Amino acid sequence: MKPTYVIDGDSFSDLSGFARHFSSIALKEYEWRGNLDAFNDILRGGFGTPDGGFILIWRKHEKSIDSLGQDLFATLIEIIRTHGAEGEEAEDGVELQLC
């Protein structure tokens, strides 16, 4: 069973807030500060996220589209999906669920 992390769209209103929120729910000894290349690296595992993947549930993702903007939200989703079943780095085993 993979660990599950829940992103709450009510918990942030910009990229910095998203970075703090994600760090607080998914990372143990590392604080991500919003660099998108670093986010990509984090999703591979080893920065507090588990090797072997995890489930990422993004609740109130529609609010996040408004808060972050369509382009940034789409970029984050693209990065996450790169590490999922259909992505170029599928071996990382990240499963995304938008709610």
Topology:
Blueprint: E1 4-8, H1 15-26, H2 36-42, E2 54-59, H3 61-68, H4 70-82, E3 94-98
Parallel strand pairs: 1-2, 2-3
Can you describe what's shown?
The protein is α/β, with parallel strands linked by helices. It has one domain (4-98): Barstar-like (Barnase, Chain D), CATH 3.30.370.10. It has helices at residues 15-26, 36-42, 61-68, 70-82, and strands spanning 4-8, 54-59, 94-98. It starts with a strand and ends with a strand.
| H and E string | EHHEHHE
Indicate the CATH architecture. Answer: 2-Layer Sandwich
Task: State the CATH superfamily name.
Answer: Barstar-like
* Overall average residue pLDDT: 95
Sequence of strands across the biggest β-sheet: 1-2-3
Low confidence ranges: none
Biggest sheet descriptor: 3 strands, parallel
What's the CATH topology label? Barnase, Chain D
Number of helices: 4
For the record, give the distance between the C-alpha atoms at the N and C termini, rounded to a whole number: 20 Å
Measured as a percent range, the helix fraction is 40-55%
| Structural classification | alpha/beta
Summed up, the domain count is 1
- Please give the number of β-strands: 3
Q: In percent, how much strand structure appears in the residues?
A: 15-25%
Rounded to the nearest angstrom, the radius of gyration is 12 Å
Question: What is the CATH domain class?
Answer: Alpha Beta
Shape: globular
